């Protein structure tokens, strides 16, 4: 784990814990013992710490946080103290990743030499903790309170150049960082380095503490539903006190965070996100035993609202991207929109000017399908009309090379229209596609495992978190969270007069956005499309009925019969959203939805008109209004999604609870500090949720989302821990 190598009078401690040299207990012990050995050896004059596997140290081993193997070794605080107190100068040779505990190790050394491409960060805040191995006290002393208050509460990654500019490293090299560190070591042998002991210094800007702290509170306020950002600010502020006092404050805050449920949930989310790449298919094919061809070129067919967002994902990954539309104007518009997205990235310094031009050079127009004949994958962004889609894909099937994969949301309909059903797969991007990291990948009954492998790898290349699901109807993430949205609409219809009440309840819980704000952002049309599709599956045609009623009655909106047709069937549908869409409210896009929006300010504004529309609606529907408790709002919005999550598992649409959690986190802004909808179920207690689901099922028999999932029933009754839920679902007979 840590190799001790001596060359002449310099000892090197090589950290070797692949893949990212995390600071597991053995590594900590190895560094500690290595420093002691070098200090005891009179022939050693200086010590270098470097990392094997072409990286320095990416931080603590997160698995050990919740899963100690009983291996008692020294703590990281003991290691950092041991480093700083070394009687011989210690030089850190830093490259690739220097994060968390790794950065705490580096700043406890006396000198730091870094490769110019090194990425530095204190990502602890993202795991619900703080740099509690003296990092909050040493870092501001080495750099400044200003820089520490920027870096530690945000967890943002910073470059070697920024590290140098802020005195966090002493030298940057373009090549061979270890050799540079050895050379550097030979220049400091026998020199006094007492002033290099970080804890002995004071931050250079303590006089500005008040202003800097206020600024940090404002900058990070959006994340204050999580405890860690606030605690990080408090801990860094304590660095203005004498070191020992600051350290006590750091320890106290670190302990409080470590034992909070949030830290546990955030660490769970870290691994859940990574676990989605370990996909598995029912026949035993999986990410390990299946190779897919690399996707080096794609064609995006169509020009919808999301096209430019999708295109930029590929451009940023330097994948040759063809945009295929039959009109030059449509192609041009996609180019302009993609250029605007990248220009914004450049303005916000997410990419450099050079990268901007390089990325754009990967864009190509295609007016004729022949131009895209040789692409590795075609991505469908055509209008929702299946006949148009089938027609175009039939043509592409004749033109494209045999290995071209077709990605569409209508897998079975496109597969049956082509002679390559094995090469047809579903990809669902979430809007805005250039921002949202979730990619839902759906396999159909005929999709080949190699096609799955190719598209899952493509997802990684375009920096998406890809979740593999089996194809049923519609987007799984929408199904998961959509049931909760329907509940919100029903409660509004049944008596809540203020949409903010439900939105606030969800936002207080930590959701990035309330239910009605989400409907507005997604757009009324998209929501009504889902309703239209659901009704189609039940044999109803929303528009057909609308036309029918229109013909027979002048104003169908006043038609009681029309609504009664759906309401008094066996199932209730969230028709109020439909009513608003018919009234011309399209959501945030046209400024009118459940809220109002102005062109200057896209923030939702409460709209009293909704109450009037609601009153008329209720009258026509014959709804007797009633009051709702906060608890009922909370339970109906969230427990309905939990029940749906269990159904998605038992129907074998998703493979494991982590996949469902990632969909809720990355597709719908579920609070990361709760871990995801399934982790929420575990924390709340499945027994409690099952009891509520049964209660609502009795109260609302016209809402099938309350039929209790068999899997939920079993895990609740037998009190089965979450780690077995996927296994049990897979052993249940297919529904
Ligand atoms: C008292 C205070 C103590 C100190 C606390 C801290 O240091 S807190 C700060 C702690 N540090 C952090 O928060 C940094 C967390 N790490 C990262 O942000 C990224 O991994 C990366 C930027 C280092 C590399 O990105 P990349 O896209 O090149 O690679 P990738 O992300 O795909 O990971 C590759 C594999 O390594 C695994 N693994 C990675 N890190 C850890 C870890 N620390 N531990 C365990 N495992 C870890 C990861 O699961 C994956 O395993 P798999 O699935 O192949 O079995």
Automatic annotation (TrEMBL):
The keyword Lyase applies. Gene3D superfamilies: 1.10.1040.50, 2-enoyl-CoA Hydratase, Chain A, domain 1, NAD(P)-binding Rossmann-like Domain. It catalyses: (3S)-hydroxydecanoyl-CoA + NAD(+) = 3-oxodecanoyl-CoA + NADH + H(+); (2S,3S)-3-hydroxy-2-methylbutanoyl-CoA = (2E)-2-methylbut-2-enoyl-CoA + H2O; (3S)-hydroxydecanoyl-CoA = (2E)-decenoyl-CoA + H2O; a 4-saturated-(3S)-3-hydroxyacyl-CoA = a (3E)-enoyl-CoA + H2O. Residues 297-470 form the 3-hydroxyacyl-CoA dehydrogenase NAD binding domain. SUPFAM superfamilies: 6-phosphogluconate dehydrogenase C-terminal domain-like (SSF48179), ClpP/crotonase (SSF52096), NAD(P)-binding Rossmann-fold domains (SSF51735). It comes from Dimorphilus gyrociliatus. Keywords: Fatty acid metabolism, Isomerase, Lipid metabolism, Lyase, Multifunctional enzyme, NAD, Oxidoreductase, Peroxisome. GO terms for cellular component: peroxisome. GO terms for molecular function: (3S)-3-hydroxyacyl-CoA dehydrogenase (NAD+) activity; delta(3)-delta(2)-enoyl-CoA isomerase activity; enoyl-CoA hydratase activity; NAD+ binding. This is Peroxisomal bifunctional enzyme. Monomer.
């Amino acid at each position: 784990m840590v190799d001790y190598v001596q060359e002449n009078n310099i000892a090197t401690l090589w950290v070797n814990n692949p893949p990212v040299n995390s600071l597991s207990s053995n590594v900590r012990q190895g560094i500690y013992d290595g420093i002691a050995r070098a200090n005891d050896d009179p022939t050693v004059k200086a010590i270098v710490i470097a990392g094997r596997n072409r990286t320095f140290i990416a931080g603590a081993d997160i698995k050990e946080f919740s899963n100690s193997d009983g291996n008692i070794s020294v703590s990281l605080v003991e290691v950092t103290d041991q480093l700083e107190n070394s009687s011989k100068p210690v030089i850190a040779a830093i490259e690739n990743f220097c994060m968390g505990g790794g950065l705490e190790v580096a700043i406890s050394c006396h000198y730091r030499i870094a490769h110019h491409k090194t990425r530095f960060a204190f990502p602890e805040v993202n795991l619900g903790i703080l740099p509690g191995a003296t990092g909050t006290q040493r870092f501001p002393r080495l750099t400044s309170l200003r820089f520490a208050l920027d870096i530690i509460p945000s967890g943002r990654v910073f470059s070697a150049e920024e590290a140098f500019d802020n005195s966090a490293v002493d030298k940057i090299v373009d090549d061979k960082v270890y050799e540079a560190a050895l050379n550097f070591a030979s220049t400091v042998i026998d020199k006094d380095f007492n002033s290099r002991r970080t804890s002995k210094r004071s931050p250079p800007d303590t006089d500005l503490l008040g202003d800097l702290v206020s600024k940090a509170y404002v900058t990070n306020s959006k994340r204050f539903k999580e405890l860690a950002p606030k605690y990080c600010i408090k801990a860094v502020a304590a660095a203005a006190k004498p070191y020992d006092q600051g350290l006590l404050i750091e320890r106290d805050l670190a302990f409080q965070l470590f034992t909070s449920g949030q830290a546990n949930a955030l660490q769970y989310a870290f691994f859940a996100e990574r676990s989605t790449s370990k996909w598995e298919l029912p026949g035993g094919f999986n990410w390990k035993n299946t190779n897919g061809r690399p996707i080096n070129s794609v064609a995006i067919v169509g020009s919808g609202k999301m096209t430019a967002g999708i295109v930029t994902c590929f451009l940023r990954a330097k994948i040759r991207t063809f945009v295929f539309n039959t009109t030059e104007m449509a192609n041009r518009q996609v180019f302009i929109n993609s250029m605007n997205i990248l220009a914004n990235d450049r303005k916000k310094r997410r990419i450099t000017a050079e990268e901007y031009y390089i990325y754009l050079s990967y864009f190509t127009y295609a007016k004729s399908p022949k131009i895209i004949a040789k692409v590795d994958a075609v991505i469908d962004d055509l209008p929702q009309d299946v006949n148009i889609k089938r027609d175009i894909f039939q043509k592409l099937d004749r033109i494209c090379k045999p290995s071209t994969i077709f990605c569409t949301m209508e897998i079975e309909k496109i597969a049956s229209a082509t002679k390559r059903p094995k090469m047809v797969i579903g990809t669902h991007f979430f809007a805005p596609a250039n921002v949202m990291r979730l990619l839902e990948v759906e396999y159909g009954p005929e999709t080949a495992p190699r096609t799955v492998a190719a598209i899952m790898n493509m997802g990684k290349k375009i920096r998406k978190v890809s979740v593999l699901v089996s194809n049923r109807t519609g987007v799984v993430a929408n199904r998961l969270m959509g049931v909760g949205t329907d509940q919100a609409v029903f409660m509004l219809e049944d008596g809540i007069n203020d949409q903010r009440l439900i939105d606030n309840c969800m936002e207080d819980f930590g959701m990035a956005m309330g239910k009605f704000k989400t409907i507005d952002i997604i757009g009324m049309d998209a929501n009504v499309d889902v309703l239209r599709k659901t009704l189609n599956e039940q044999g109803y045609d929303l528009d057909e009925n609308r036309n029918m009623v229109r013909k027979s009655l002048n104003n169908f909106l006043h038609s009681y019969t029309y609504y009664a047709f759906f309401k008094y069937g066996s199932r209730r549908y969230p028709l109020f959203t439909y009513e608003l869409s018919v009234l011309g409210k399209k959501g945030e896009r046209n400024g009118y939805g459940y809220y109002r929006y102005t062109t200057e300010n896209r923030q939702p504004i409460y709209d009293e008109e909704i109450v009037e529309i609601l009153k008329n609606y209720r009258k026509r529907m014959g709804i007797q209004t009633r009051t709702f408790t906060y608890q009922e709002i909370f339970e109906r919005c969230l427990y309905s999604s939990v029940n749906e999550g269990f159904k998605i598992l038992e129907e074998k649409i998703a493979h494991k609870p982590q996949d469902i959690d990632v969909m809720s986190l990355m597709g719908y802004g579920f609070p990361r500090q709760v871990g995801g909808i399934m982790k929420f179920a575990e924390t709340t207690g499945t027994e409690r949720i099952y009891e509520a689901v049964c209660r609502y099922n009795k109260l609302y028999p016209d809402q099938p989302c309350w039929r209790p999932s068999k899997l939920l029933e079993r895990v609740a009754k037998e009190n089965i821990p979450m780690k077995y839920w996927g296994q049990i679902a897979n052993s249940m007979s297919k529904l």
